[in-house]
Write a structure and sequence with these properties.
Layout lengths: L1 H32 L3 H4 L19 H12 L12 H5 L3 H12 L2
Helix pairs in contact: 1-5, 3-5
Length: 105
């Protein structure tokens, strides 16, 4: 029984490890298709003049929390209002994928 459990756990760990790059790739596609690149740059490095923040390398949980805050209109400054329609166009899985992509940069 212990051996079966170890094999099962090893398989789950491998699946989680190999799924992250695929999820990041999906996030990159969403980032491009949703038009995020027009403000934040193709790789999330930020826009000209630092008006649009650098997202590349941000912690995944931070990006998820920020996108959720935009969706709930918890962030509603003049600059934040630009993000609300984009954030609201994403479902939970897409948010996770985009956050994984940005964290991988």
């Amino acid at each position: 029984m212990k051996k079966v459990m170890r094999v099962l756990l090893a398989g789950l760990a491998f699946a989680a490890f190999t799924a992250a790059p695929v999820f990041a790739e999906e996030g990159a596609t969403i980032f491009l298709r949703k038009g995020c690149t027009s403000c934040h740059g193709a790789d999330g490095a930020g826009g000209p003049g630092n008006y649009y923040p650098k997202l590349a390398g941000q912690q995944k949980d931070y990006v998820v929390a920020q996108l959720q805050a935009f969706q709930k209109i918890e962030r509603n400054s003049a600059r934040a209002k630009e993000m609300i329609p984009f954030a609201r166009s994403l479902n939970a899985e897409q948010i996770e994928a985009v956050a994984t992509f940005l964290a991988s940069k």
